[in-house]
Amino acid sequence: MDPRLPHVFHRFCSECRLQFQTAVRDLEENKLTDFEQYCKQQMRDTQGTTQLLKNSPRAMQDLLEEEVTELKSDFKKQLTVTEEETSSDVKEMDPRLPHVFQRFCPECRLQFQTAVQDLKENKLKVFHQYCKQLMRDTQDTTQRLKTSPQAMQDLLEMKVTELKNDFEKQLTVTEEEKSSYVKELDQRLQNLVHDFCRNYQQRFERVVRELKENKLKDFDQYCEQQIRDTQGTTQLLKTSPRAMQDLLEKKVTELKSDFKKQLTVTDEETPSYVKELDQRLQNLVHDFCSDYQQRFERAVRELKKNKLKDFDQYCEQQKQGCIPKKKKKTKLKKKAKKILRDFGRCLCDDYPEKQSVVAELHEEMWRLIGELHRVDPVKF
Known about the structure:
- This protein is 85% helix and 0% strand.
- It has helices at 4-45, 49-53, 57-77, 83-93, 96-137, 141-145, 149-169, 175-229, 233-237, 241-261, 270-320, 325-346, 354-375.
C-alpha cells in the first residue's frame, strides 16, 4: 500500500494547488475590478467642472495610490500562505494595478487641464462683459467726464483682482501650480485692461476736447455780446478798455472753474487740461482787447472831433452877431466849458487818458478863440 500513498498525495496536492491558484487569480481579478470601479466612480464624482476642480491631478493620484494600498492590504489579509508566497502573489498583481492607474491618471489630468482652461475662459468672459457694461455706463458725455482714465483703470484693476481671487479659490492644486495658472490668467486680463484703458483714454480726451470747444464757443458768444452792447459810441465810451478786460478775465475765470468742475481727473492731471484751455482763452482776450482798445481810441477821437466841430460852428455863428466884444468872449468861454464838461461826462472815469484828451480839446478850443481874436481883434 505504501507505493500508492505518495501517488494519491501528489495528485491531491496538485489539484489543491491548482484550485488555490485559481482562487488567488479570482481574488486578483476581483481587486482589479474593484479598482476599476473605484476609478469609474471618481470619474462620475468629478463629472462637473466645479467638482473636477476640487480634486487636482495630484490629489486624485493620492486617492488612487491610497486605494491601491488598501486593495493590496486586503488582498494580503485574504491569503493564508507564507510570507514568501504572499509576496510573490502580490508582486504578480502589482504590475496590473499600475497599468489601470497609469491609464486613468493622464485622462484625469487632461480633464482637469480642460476644466482649468474653461474656468479661465469663463473669467475672461465675465471681464469682457464687465468692460462692455462700463462702455455703456460711459456712453453719455456727462457720465464719461465723471470717470477719469485713472478712475476707470482703478475699476478694472479691482475687477481683475476679484476674478483672480475667485479663480484661485476654485483651484485645489499646489501653490506652485496655482501660481502658474493664475499668472497666465493675470497676463491675459492685464492685456485686456491695457487695451481697454488705451481706448478709453482716447474717448475721454475726445470728450475733453469737445468740452474745451464748448467753453471757447461760450466765450466767443460772450465777446460777440460785448460788441453788440458797445455798438454805439455812447455805450462804447462808458466801458473803458481796462473795464472790458476785467469783464473778459472774469468770464475766463468762470469758464475755467466750470471746466474744472466737469472734470473728474486727479489733481496732477487737472493743470495740464486747464492750461491749454486757459492759453486759448487768454489769446482770445488779448485779440479782443487789442481790437477794443482801437475801437475805443477811435471813438474818443471821433467824439473830440465832433465837439471841436460844434465849437467851431458856434464860433462862426458869433461872427454874424452884433453884440459887444466882451459879451462874445464870455459866451465863447461859457460854450467851451459846457462842451468840455459834456465831453468829460461822455468818457468813463477809469479811462487813464481822460484828463489828457480833455486838456487837448481845451487847448484846441482856446486856439480857435485866439484865432478869432487874431483875425478880427475888433469883434473878438
